[in-house]
Amino acid sequence: MTSQIETLKLEIIDLKSQLLQKELLLSQLQEKNEGFNKYSESLSTGEVVRYSRQIIMPSFTVDGQKSLKNSKLLIVGVGGLGCPAALYLAAAGIGHITLLDYDEVELSNLHRQILHNEFDVRSNKVDSAFKKLKRINRHITVEPINIHVNSSSITEIISKTKYNVVIDGSDNVATRYLLNDVCVLNKIPLVSGSALQMEGQLTVYNYNGGPCYRCLFPVPPPAYTVTNCGDGGVLGPIPGTIGVLQALEAIKILTKTPGVLCGRLLLFDGSNTTFRNIKLRPRNKSCAVCGDSPTVTSLIDYEQFCGASAHDNVINIDILKTNQNTDIKSIVNAKNNIIIDVRPKIEYQMCRLPNTTNIPLNDLKKEKHLDKVKDILETSKETDVFVLCRRGNDSQRAIVLFKEKFSSLPINFINVSGGLHSYSKHVDPSFPAY
Amino acid sequence: MSNLEITIEFGGGAELLFDNKKAHNVSLPIKNKQWIIGDLLLWIKENLLKDRPELFLQDDSVRPGILVLVNDADWELMDTVNYVIQPKDKILFISTLHGG
């Protein structure tokens, strides 16, 4: 059965790629065939019909449509924000959309990154998005760039194409500073969105005399205060809402419509469905990049500036002595040992190994839980107690705490390297590696 | 004279440091001088913030990455820590989000 599944998967990939080729060819031929429209100066027959519902608005008109058609827009991050933003911008008829992302589609992306589907898992996000957007609108150019954004790659991309707007759909602080600076230095408005758990934030930087990201945040936040979607979680409609609003702001900027969200910050709280509009400070004359005498006049090393890497992947730590670590396979054979899973309770409820005990890392930090933990440890029949978590990092942090708090107990705390991810990879792939 | 009644709000994850509660109606005791936000930060540290103050405060202000908003306006528009708190003010501390 497994081989049948794999064969089918390959066949489908092949058929889909053939289908895409034919669709692209068809749309090219149709585009040529359609050609000149004697009833309209600037738009083809298909374009007039397609965009008619937005063109007939007095605030938009055929001039608005022409502006969109002649616009070039860069979307950085084709994830929870970038997908819905790209969807609406492609449908609205932005002439040139560049998609920039280095990442591959994962199963855990699909609840919010709505351009991607089950067949796209493990393919490039930009290629996956390209295929969907081209099927939505054959009149536009979509340019997928599968590259990690940094000072040198963004400089090259920006020098090749003159963008009118940049959409920040990134997921980390370093990239947010990078995009801010590149937009200030090249005088491009930046539509910035972010989302986590049940909340989203949205504003437009560097537009119409308003502040830039650095005016608001001259100093990056300490790395330990930053939570990403992989650790904090996020409900799909939250980035969905913010991403769609990013598309709206981009369209308003490109069509020179008033009412752009600059100098203001929109706070969306999905837990009670409230939108708050905050009045922000004006541009800071002493801002390091957009101020009157800037100190940042070219792009810098943003990972160094932020003390954090420019992606939201987890950085693995190694803080224990070698003999305090063990392979995942040793807990499979463990019979009498206590195995402690230190993940948060919610994650333990979601999936867990049998015969494990949940003592969340955060509980170890609070005195009130320690008596209970001690009771559990005292039932141990073996001196070796295994400590386990999602990826093998928090378990190391937990061991440091265990040794500190329970030094009187004759227990040898052993870290399970690689944690449950390693279990899924090396022992049983049916354990969900989330 | 009665106490100074205000609402303190937290968002963007900052509420996690305050029992996961987003709005706190508080009554600040009357003192000789007027209450400014600088005083309020110390009051929050003493009365609401139980542990890990470094996740909220740094030096005599909030840590980088937290915006302070007085009645839905940036505190930079009103002299930041020196703003004199008025009755019924809504003071919001919002942690900026970076996820996408």
Structural features, described:
The complex is a heterodimer of chains A (434) and B (100). Chain A has 434 residues and is an alpha/beta fold. Chain A has helices at residues 2-34, 45-55, 61-69, 82-92, 125-136, 151-160, 173-185, 213-216, 229-232, 237-254, 302-306, 329-332, 345-350, 361-364, 370-378, 394-405, 419-426, and strands spanning 72-76, 96-101, 141-146, 165-168, 190-196, 199-205, 264-269, 274-279, 325-326, 339-341, 357-358, 384-388, 412-416. An 8-stranded mixed sheet of chain A has the order 3-2-1-4-5-6-7-8, sandwiched between helices. A 5-stranded parallel sheet of chain A has the order 9-13-12-10-11. In chain A, α13 (345-350) links the parallel β10 and β11. The longest helix of chain A is centred in the N-terminal third of the chain and has 33 residues, at 2-34. Chain A is globular, with a radius of gyration of 26 Å. In chain A, 38% of the residues are buried. The mean pLDDT of chain A is 94. Chain B has 1 helix and 7 strands; from the N terminus they run ββαβββββ. The termini of chain B are far apart. Chain B is mainly beta. Chain B has one helix spanning 37-47; strands at 4-11, 23-28, 57-58, 61-62, 66-70, 73-74, 90-95. The longest helix of chain B has 11 residues, at 37-47. Chain B has a single domain, classed as Ubiquitin-like (UB roll) (Roll). At the A-B interface, β5, β6, β7 and β8 of A face β6 of B.
